[in-house]
């Protein structure tokens, strides 16, 4: 069964450093998402991406965040200058058109900012 | 994206049927109702989706009344491994703002 893959599975970074989280969505999917989940809290929407541009973003997705689809397969989330409160699990997800609101999640990238 | 309301938590015992209800009073005509399951440290996983009446798959059943203002996820004969957080999501096919609510934390006891 096709799946969304994410790398790295776990990253430890120093406060102020830039981090890039990578995702390979399912190949025929057209809608891409990033979510985060702080330990013990709910899944929070960050951004959605369609047709090579951001289609929706939450209030969490401020200027320190950016997304990119640099080639036909990868979808990345960049955090420019990490803060302690960015420590969380980051999930990438993708969706095909015509499937209602069924989205498929990767296993996540656990980011620890120290 | 329609706002949803679910119970924060539920407890059950192995072998019982569990029903989790989600309220979505402002559901729109084109909205689907989708349920996800999340285990600790894993991404949410699609369980079932419906539009109206009843849908059943190998994992669960989804009951949707005629007014579609609520839906009930039914898990038959739960086991310990069904302990997870269950999320209800309501939105249409073109939804870009796919936000999850707090979900229902189901604990299955032996």
Protein described:
The complex is a heterodimer of chains A (114) and B (110). Chain A has 114 residues and is mostly beta strands. Chain A contains no helices and 11 strands. Chain A has strands at residues 5-7, 10-13, 19-24, 31-37, 44-50, 53-57, 65-68, 75-79, 88-95, 104-105, 109-113. The termini of chain A are far apart. Chain B is mainly beta. Chain B has a 5-stranded mixed sheet, with no helix packed on it. Chain B has a 4-stranded antiparallel sheet with strand order 2-7-6-5, with no helix packed on it. The mean pLDDT of chain B is 93.
Keywords:
A: 114 residues; B: 110 residues; mainly beta
| Uncertain segments of chain A | none
Helix content of chain A: under 10%
State which percent range the strand residues of chain A make up.
Answer: over 45%
Query: How many helical stretches of chain B?
Result: 0
Average pLDDT of chain B works out at 93
The coarse silhouette of chain A is globular
Q: What is the helix fraction of residues of chain B, given as a range?
A: under 10%
Draw up the topology in text.
The complex is a heterodimer of chains A (114) and B (110).
Chain A: E1 5-7, E2 10-13, E3 19-24, E4 31-37, E5 44-50, E6 53-57, E7 65-68, E8 75-79, E9 88-95, E10 104-105, E11 109-113
Chain B: E1 9-13, E2 18-23, E3 32-38, E4 45-50, E5 53-56, E6 61-64, E7 70-75, E8 84-91, E9 104-109
Parallel strand pairs in B: 1-9
Antiparallel strand pairs in B: 2-7, 3-4, 3-8, 5-6, 6-7, 8-9
Can you describe this structure in just a few lines?
The complex is a heterodimer of chains A (114) and B (110). Chain A has no helices and 11 strands.
């Amino acid at each position: 069964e096709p799946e969304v893959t994410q790398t790295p599975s776990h990253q430890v970074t120093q406060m102020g450093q830039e981090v890039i989280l990578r995702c390979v969505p399912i190949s025929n999917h057209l809608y891409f998402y990033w979510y985060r989940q702080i330990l013990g809290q709910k899944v929070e929407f960050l951004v959605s991406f369609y047709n090579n541009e951001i289609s929706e973003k939450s209030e969490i997705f401020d200027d320190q965040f950016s997304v990119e689809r640099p080639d036909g397969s990868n979808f990345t989330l960049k955090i420019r200058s990490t803060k302690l409160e960015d420590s969380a699990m980051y999930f990438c997800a993708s969706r095909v058109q015509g499937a209602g609101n069924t989205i498929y999640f990767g296993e996540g990238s656990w980011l620890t900012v120290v | 994206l329609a706002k949803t309301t679910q119970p924060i938590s539920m407890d059950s015992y192995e072998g019982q049927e569990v029903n989790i209800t989600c309220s979505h009073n402002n559901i729109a005509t084109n909205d689907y109702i989708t349920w996800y399951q999340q285990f600790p440290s894993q991404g949410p996983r699609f369980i079932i989706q419906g539009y109206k009446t009843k849908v059943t798959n190998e994992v669960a059943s989804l009951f949707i009344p005629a007014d579609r203002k609520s839906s009930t996820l039914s898990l038959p004969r739960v086991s310990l491994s069904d302990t997870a957080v269950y999320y209800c999501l309501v939105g249409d096919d073109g939804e870009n703002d796919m936000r999850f609510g707090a979900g229902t934390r189901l604990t299955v006891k032996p």
